[in-house]
Every structure is written in C-alpha cells, then in structure tokens.
Write a structure and sequence with these properties.
307 residues; 2 domains; Rossmann fold; four-stranded antiparallel β-sheet; single chain; Alpha-Beta Plaits; 10 helices; 14 strands; six-stranded mixed β-sheet; alpha/beta; 32% helix
Length: 307
C-alpha cells in the first residue's frame, strides 16, 4: 500500500478564548519511516498528537491514520496507532504484567494472542514483571509506557518526548528499540527536544512553529541547509586584535592565541580561512572544526518564522 501512514490536511484547532493552536497544518508521514515532528514549546505538537489520539476535537481539516479517517472510522483509526505521551500514565499498584494485560483487554486483544512477557522482554523489563509499577525507576516507567502503547501491535507508534529526563544509557536503549520496531515495519513519529536524537533517528523531519508547518524535508536535505562552519585556530603568538577578512563571516577571540572563525561553506573553504590567518603573519599551531548541525537549522528556521 502506498497511502501515507498518517495523512493530515489543513488541520486546525482553536480553543475556547480564541487561541489557535493549529493553523492549517498539512503533511504526510510515509509508511515505514521514522518521522520527526519538531518545534518549540507551544508550537502545537501536543495538540496535534492529542487530536490523533482522540483526546482533543479538531475544529477543521482532516486526519487519516493508516487510511482510516479519525471522524468517520474512529475505532479503526485508534486501533492503528499507539501513543506514548510525555506524562507517565498507569496505575502504580499494578505490576507491569498486569498493566499490559489490562491494556490488551481494553483493545480487545484476545488472551491467547497476547504475550505480556514477550513485550516486557523486548523493553528489558522481564525481571520487573511482578514488581509494583510504582517501584520502577523513571527510565523503567518510560519503557513500560512504550510497551503499553504496543500491546495491540499498531502499525503506527507516536513517541512524544520519549527520552525526556532519562539518562544517556537508557536513551541509547530506547533508540535501539525504536530502530528494531521500525525494522519490523512499524512507522514511528517522534517528537523530541533533543535535536541530536532527531538527527540520529529520523528519515524525515517536519518543524512546526505557531501552529504552522514551516518545513517538511528529508533529514539529509535539512542538514544540507546548514551552511555555517566553525574553525578554531590556535596560533604561535599572542594576538593583539582579531584580524578581518572577506571570507570570515564572524570572528571571536578565545584567550590570547585562539581565534574562533565562522564562515559559510558556499562562500569559502577551510584552506582560504587558514591562508587568511597566515597572511597576518601568524604560524598555525592547532586547528579544529565544527560542522553546523540540525540545531543550527532549527534555530534559523524558527527565528525566520518568528520574524
């Protein structure tokens, strides 16, 4: 099937009081991809996810999940998506196994077709199956939330800030599990404030700002927009003042002998930058570089939208 996993067209949401959270949002999430949905706080990401989950009513537009319109086929649409919210929501007095079995019952998954232990094993919680959920660490609770969203084997999984507040090791474990699910054919939508996470995982990224989509591109194309590069040059003697050259976009001094030079890759290269420093009579002792990343692109696009 070639239809998008999620198809959103001119989606709008205006809350009582006139606040417009979504203003004609349109994009498709291709099947089989890991799709990043980024944006600053208050951009409208959570409202959009809550509309897909059936928790918020839209005021305009359409949304389809796995081909099912959320209005005309709500049961099929909900059965096609699993959502891991930012908030941890389960009964602290049930065990992880009981939590998953109850969730499976709510979705009408027959007992003989559901293996809670296999799902707990997949998220590395098999040894905590019979512990009270309230005794789990924050990271374990987050993993239980992912397992809970997958009990009915939905083809689409939405992860809303899944690694917020968890340590680096757990983040790596969750990344590995997301890749594993995606390799099995699950389409994943990821919202995150960790831009390196989106850069690492996502095939495609849409950025929302003030309720509107300001870009929707393959990740590699977004990264190609990052034209700035930084060169840090340490020279062989003290620098009385920062030199100037047409190939420098910006130059700063760090200490007595180090220059931090920003240039645009479409206008110059590192060789020209170093030549300009040497023309000032300095010998180069050390050089390090930093490529612009998704964070630079994100800030550039959202600032432009705000302007």
């Amino acid at each position: 099937m070639t239809e998008a996993a999620i198809a959103i067209d001119q989606l709008c949401k205006t809350y009582a009081g006139g606040k417009r959270a979504l203003d004609g949002v349109s994009f498709d999430v291709p099947r089989g991809q890991i799709f990043g949905l980024l944006g600053p706080n208050g951009a409208g990401k959570s409202t959009l996810i809550n509309i897909l989950a059936g928790l918020v009513n839209k005021t305009g537009g359409t949304a389809r999940i796995w081909g099912f319109d959320i209005d005309s086929h709500p049961r099929n649409a909900k059965a096609s998506i699993g959502i891991v919210n930012q908030e941890i929501t389960f009964d602290p007095f049930f065990t992880p196994r009981e939590t998953l079995e109850i969730q499976a019952g709510l979705y009408g998954v027959r007992k003989e077709r559901f293996d809670a232990m296999a799902l707990l094993r997949a998220v590395h919680l098999e040894d905590k199956a019979e512990a009270y959920s309230r005794t789990l660490s924050g990271g374990m609770k987050r993993r239980l939330m992912v397992a809970k969203a997958m009990v009915h084997s939905p083809p689409v999984l939405v992860l809303d800030e899944p690694t917020a507040g968890v340590d680096v090791e757990l983040r790596q474990q969750l990344w590995a599990y997301v890749r594993e699910l995606n390799a099995r054919g699950v389409t994943v939508v990821l919202t995150t404030h960790y831009l390196e996470e989106a850069e690492e995982l996502c095939d495609r990224i849409a950025i929302i700002n003030h309720g509107r989509v300001i870009t929707n591109q393959p990740t590699r194309d977004l990264l190609a927009m990052a034209q700035e590069k930084v060169v840090e040059v340490t020279v062989d003697r003290d620098i009385p003042g920062a030199p100037a050259d047409t190939c420098f976009q910006k130059i700063e001094m760090r200490g007595a002998r180090t220059l931090v030079i920003t240039y645009r890759k479409d206008q110059a290269n590192a060789g020209q930058v170093l030549d300009a420093v040497q023309r000032e009579g300095y010998g180069i002792v050390d050089v390090s570089t930093r490529e612009a990343d998704l964070e630079d692109v994100f800030l550039s696009l959202t600032r432009a939208a705000n302007g």
